[in-house]
């Protein structure tokens, strides 16, 4: 299919269009048995016309998805330590460090040192746990905001909110980022016993893989023997 | 400038010929699935045969005891590396369906996995997410549905910041979405649409591509037009999608492909295309078309047709909307560069993927049907001859080419004059030799217009043995009347 050489230049040229030639229709044009009439055509979702392109699309997807999910080869770098005060985690790949940083240090509550998966949850936490004004307002109006982004519902108590999360949003009843506070009043920094109680959960048993409750600063980690650099498991309440 | 993200190619264990054969089989399977309207299915997302070839090299089947061991080690091991290693082993095992089955039947296994997923050990989190991803990939519903307790967390993590982790969560969600309507019935109230709307603001290309994939699967669901697309249209997703499709140095092919398909699924469902038009969809897509045409000239890049296809579809369908008329004043809809771009793409498709030619010609039809301006452009840019060149490709293509020519011819003598003389007549005589009724029928329509508007056309037709060409169709039911009418006109004027 040979295209006129000027075409490529036209594409690169300025926007604009030709002055249209005059339109002059003869009514005899559309008389029976001839029936042609120009019309734009639309095709709905499932139309067979789309079969070819759809098949090509899915071939492509199959190729892409085959490559997803395995741990990609990461370029290794000389070991380095996380620079956040009190954290001794060691890494040999930048992406691992990136994930560590975002998980543990990025959305950390400056009052109680808990880490959260997102800024949104952190903000909610600070408001509900550390803001005395919140407590006062909560006595008179619905202040507990639904945790699902996009849902604007507010509730009187955190229990009501949890019920809403479960019933309306099909969240698990033990959703880990919605732990209720045990006591009234804002949680003050340094309230180590409080934090201890929270992290242990109701039955007092330390559960591995529990909610994002990292307390990295006000509890001293056991001293590391000099000369030994080990990757640090950062649980301040382990092995009680 | 178009950038391709880093490749993630795994070494394949078979030769080129085998690959081609495999591909043909996959194509056939997909075609069959589409006819049965089963194109969005887990089974088709993962190429089974290729998997098996690799399996021998990697995964073993683990029994209950071994799985227990791995989980316990991951949970309570003392050494960081040990715990991670346990999960890596588990993940490899989970590539096998047998291991998957054993895993989900083990009491507390999912709970433990979710616990590790939400732990404060970043690397364990990642590995746990990979385990979950393996499970989500399974063809067995029971295995996939075992992942459901994790979905609220996967969605929560979409608002995080760790791009690798988010990417993994998105592909996992994409797999879950495809699984069944029941799964989607949980994901929707859990807020998947707002979560995606928040996540689409990420600057990471890998995240965006994964998000586009997940969203495209969501939009392709059977119930999407009623249950999903309205809330997607009500969110900020369309604006962001259009932004990601804007041509320019930041346009990334992999990302653009995904969101172009998302737009296609939305548009062809015809829920509220007027809204998309007010958000500038026509304008953005028109500019993208121009950019694509530029790109195909510059690079041998495999994959541009993957983007061309949905863009062509979106534009074609949008042009049928009444709202499109209203914004007709906008430059893109009158700009003849669109026609130039389209022909460059048609040439590209002819070489690369001829089966996609109908889609390009569909757009050409919609552009020219009611537009004297674009019909004139076809003539002034000398595009009739290249168009005629396509007549031998296939019946579907021929009908479309002839339809476009009719679009031009029906506008009157000034247009037919420019179609004459030239190769048009001999091309028409060729198409009259086709046996396909639709091709012949469209040729007859075009002939009638030429006889009507172009003096001398009927005579030239006669001189070139046109009557004989018509004769062979005298008995065909759908063609008879028109054949006779043309014979009369040719002979008697």
UniProtKB/TrEMBL annotation, chain A:
Xref: PROSITE patterns: ZINC_FINGER_C2H2_1 (PS00028)
Region annotation (Disordered) ranges: 1-25
Superkingdom assignment: Eukaryota
Sequence ranges assigned to domain C2H2-type in this UniProt record: 82-105, 109-130, 146-169
Transmembrane feature ranges: none
Name of the featured protein: Zinc finger protein 511 isoform X4
Organism the protein comes from: Tursiops truncatus (Atlantic bottle-nosed dolphin)
Lineage of source species: Eukaryota, Metazoa, Chordata, Craniata, Vertebrata
Underlying gene: ZNF511
Automatic annotation (TrEMBL), chain B:
Entry annotated with the keyword Membrane: yes
Bilayer-crossing regions: none
Keywords noted in UniProt: Membrane, Transmembrane
InterPro entries documented for this protein: ARM-like, ARM-type_fold, Armadillo
Record SMART domains: ARM
Residues annotated as signal peptide: none
Transmembrane as UniProt keyword: yes
Name this polypeptide is given: Transmembrane and coiled-coil domain-containing protein 6 isoform X1
Organism (species): Tursiops truncatus (Atlantic bottle-nosed dolphin)
Lineage, opening ranks: Eukaryota, Metazoa, Chordata, Craniata, Vertebrata
């Amino acid at each position: 299919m040979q295209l006129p050489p000027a075409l490529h230049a036209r594409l690169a040229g300025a926007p604009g269009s030709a002055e249209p030639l005059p339109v002059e229709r003869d009514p005899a044009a559309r008389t029976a048995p001839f029936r042609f009439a120009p019309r734009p055509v639309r095709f709905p979702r499932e139309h067979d016309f789309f079969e070819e392109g759809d098949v090509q699309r899915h071939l492509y997807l199959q190729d892409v998805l085959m490559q997803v999910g395995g741990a990609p080869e990461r370029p290794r770098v000389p070991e380095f330590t996380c620079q956040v005060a009190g954290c001794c985690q060691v890494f040999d790949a930048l992406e691992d460090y990136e994930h560590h940083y975002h998980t543990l240090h990025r959305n950390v509550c400056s009052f109680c040192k808990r880490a959260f998966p997102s800024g949104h949850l952190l903000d909610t936490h600070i408001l509900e746990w550390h803001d005395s004004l919140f407590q006062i307002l909560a006595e008179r109006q619905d202040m507990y905001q639904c945790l699902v982004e996009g849902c604007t519902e507010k509730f009187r108590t955190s229990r009501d909110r949890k019920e809403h999360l479960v019933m309306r949003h099909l969240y698990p009843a033990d959703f880990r980022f919605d732990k209720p506070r045990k006591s009234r009043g804002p949680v003050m920094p340094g309230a180590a016993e409080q934090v201890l109680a929270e992290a242990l959960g109701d039955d007092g048993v330390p559960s591995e893989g529990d909610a994002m409750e990292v307390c990295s600063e006000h509890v001293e980690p056991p001293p590391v023997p000099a000369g030994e650099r080990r990757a640090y498991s950062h649980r301040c309440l382990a092995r009680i | 400038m178009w950038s391709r993200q880093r490749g993630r190619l795994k070494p394949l264990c078979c030769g080129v010929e085998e690959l081609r054969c495999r591909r043909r089989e996959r194509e056939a399977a997909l075609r069959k699935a589409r006819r049965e309207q089963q194109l969005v299915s887990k089974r088709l997302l993962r190429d089974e045969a290729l998997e098996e070839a690799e399996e021998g090299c990697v995964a073993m089947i683990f029994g209950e005891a071994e799985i227990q061991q791995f989980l316990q080690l991951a949970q309570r091991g003392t050494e960081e590396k040990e715990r991670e290693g346990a999960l890596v082993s588990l993940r490899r095992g989970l590539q096998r369906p047998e291991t998957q089955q054993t895993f989900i039947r083990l009491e507390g296994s999912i709970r433990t996995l979710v616990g590790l997923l939400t732990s404060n050990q970043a690397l364990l989190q990642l590995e746990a997410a990979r385990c979950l991803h393996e499970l989500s990939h399974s063809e067995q519903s029971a295995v996939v549905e075992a992942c459901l307790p994790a979905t609220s967390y996967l969605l929560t993590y979409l608002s995080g910041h760790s791009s690798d982790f988010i990417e993994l969560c998105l592909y996992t969600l994409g797999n879950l979405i495809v699984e069944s309507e029941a799964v989607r019935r949980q994901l929707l109230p859990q807020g998947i649409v707002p979560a995606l709307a928040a996540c689409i603001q990420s600057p990471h290309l890998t995240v965006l591509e994964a998000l586009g994939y997940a969203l495209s699967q969501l939009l392709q669901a059977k119930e999407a037009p009623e249950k999903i697309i309205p809330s997607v249209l009500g969110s900020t997703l369309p604006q962001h999608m259009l932004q990601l499709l804007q041509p320019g140095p930041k346009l990334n092919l992999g990302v653009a492909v995904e969101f172009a398909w998302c737009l296609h699924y939305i548009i062809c469902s015809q829920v509220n295309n007027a809204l998309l038009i007010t958000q500038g969809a026509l304008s953005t897509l028109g500019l993208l078309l121009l950019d694509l045409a530029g790109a195909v000239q510059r690079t041998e890049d495999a994959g541009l047709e993957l983007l061309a296809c949905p863009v062509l579809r979106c534009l074609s369908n949008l042009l049928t909307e009444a709202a499109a008329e209203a914004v007709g004043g906008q430059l893109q809809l009158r700009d003849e560069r669109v026609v130039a771009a389209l022909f460059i793409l048609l040439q590209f498709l002819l070489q690369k993927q001829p089966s996609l030619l109908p889609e390009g010609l569909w757009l050409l039809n919609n552009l020219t049907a009611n537009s004297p301006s674009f019909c004139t452009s076809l003539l002034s840019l000398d595009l009739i001859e290249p168009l005629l060149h396509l007549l031998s490709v296939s019946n579907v293509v021929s009908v479309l080419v002839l339809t476009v020519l009719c679009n031009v011819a029906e506008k009157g003598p000034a247009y037919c004059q420019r179609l004459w003389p030239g190769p048009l007549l001999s091309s028409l005589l060729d198409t009259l030799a086709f046996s396909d009724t639709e091709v012949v029928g469209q040729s007859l329509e075009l002939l009638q217009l030429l006889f009507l508007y172009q003096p001398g056309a009927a005579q030239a037709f006669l001189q070139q043995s046109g009557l004989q060409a018509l004769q062979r169709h005298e008995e065909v039911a759908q063609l008879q009347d028109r054949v006779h009418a043309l014979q009369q006109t040719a002979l008697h004027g």
